[in-house]
Specification:
Distance between the termini: 36 Å
Number of domains: 1
Structural class: mainly beta
Low-confidence stretches: 14-21
CATH topology: Porin
Strand order of the largest sheet: 1-2-3-4-5-6-7-9
Mean pLDDT: 86
Number of strands: 9
Order of helices and strands: HEEEEEEEEE
Helix content: under 10%
Radius of gyration: 18 Å
Number of helices: 1
CATH architecture: Beta Barrel
Strand content: over 45%
Length: 199
């Protein structure tokens, strides 16, 4: 599923970039709240195999992006994205756990009625980055991998400034560790709401 979604997002980005003429360039900063999500922990070894799930706890999102508007309502963006939130790991016996993701993304967006003051949009992005887990009793560890996201929201133009009210679904890089025949895999996804300002 992750590979398929990443390929679909990449195809959307390539299609939008190649199908339109270049327009205005912009920079944007976003801040937001991680408001939910889930983490799936899978353990595979000779004596036990199984999966458990945990919920994402409240956290924050910060991002900076540079984009190019295109004449047909599309835009393409490069983005540096950071998320940080806790993981409800009490049932797993892991104590306090936090997850920090640092991602470089390429996004494609389509704005409906982009010439109006209020303009709804949808988008998708794919990228690569680091997912770090910090365990209160053990320390921290990280892994790198592919990430992807879906975006929706609307922009509001007022007095020469563009405000962005958005929602994101982010599928974070897979964390995988193996030792003495035992493999532990963590796959996480988070939901975030954001407020951004464009320059």
């Amino acid at each position: 599923m992750k590979l398929f979604a990443s390929a679909a997002a990449a195809a959307l980005i390539v299609a939008s970039a190649s199908a339109a003429q270049a327009g205005d360039t912009y920079a944007q900063v976003d801040a937001g709240i991680v408001a939910g999500g889930s983490y799936d922990l899978t353990v595979d070894d000779p004596f036990f195999s199984g999966s458990m799930s945990s919920d994402a706890e409240i956290g924050f999102l910060l991002s900076g992006r540079v984009g190019k508007e295109l004449d047909n309502g599309f835009a393409v963006e490069g983005e540096l994205l950071v998320t940080h939130n806790g993981v409800d790991a009490d049932e797993l016996g892991l104590g306090d756990v936090t997850n920090t993701n640092t991602l470089l993304m390429v996004n494609a967006k389509y704005a409906f009625h982009s010439d109006k003051d209020v303009s709804p949009y949808v988008g998708a992005g794919v990228g690569y980055g680091q997912s770090q887990y910090e365990f209160a009793d053990v320390g921290s560890d990280d892994d790198n991998g592919v990430a992807w996201q879906l975006l929706a929201g609307f922009t509001y133009k007022k007095d020469g400034r563009v405000w962005d009210f958005g929602y994101r679904y982010i599928d974070t890089p897979e964390y995988k560790i193996g030792d003495s025949g035992t493999t532990v895999t963590v796959e996480g996804d988070i939901h975030a709401v954001t407020l951004g300002v464009r320059f």
